[in-house]
Amino acid sequence: MIYASNITSLNFLELLSIKGAPVADEHWILVQLQIKTQIPHLDGSELPQAWKNRPYPKATQYFGTEWAQKFISPFLKIPSCRIPLINYPQEHNLLINPIHPDFRKLVAVKAAHPVDFALNPNH
Fold first, then answer.
1. Domain coordinates of the chain in residue numbers?
2. What pLDDT band is residue 18 in, cutting at 50, 70 and 90?
3. How many Cα atoms within 13 Å fall on the side-chain side of residue 116?
4. Would you list the DSSP string of 32-54?
């Protein structure tokens, strides 16, 4: 499973909220994908109860695992629990199933950019 976001800043907000401050000490590659199909989406009411809770309920992991193992779709838009959905309706996370049979024909890498949060500009 690849966990992504459709907005760069949301991608890093998700990463920071999951891994904490050590994220800033790492070097990252931001990969931009082109997805050549309509992407199904779910809203919060279609996700397991308490999907926004921390620590994350096992039900959300089971939900994602079942979606991936049944090859329901290669991509799935889901809401982020990090931002108020009412204010940012166009921002979402994306589950990507790279073992789905249609994955390779529906996705292409558009660009890859190094990302470094180091405070030293010469780093």
1. 2-116
2. confident
3. 7
4. EEEE-S---B--GGGSPTTTT-S
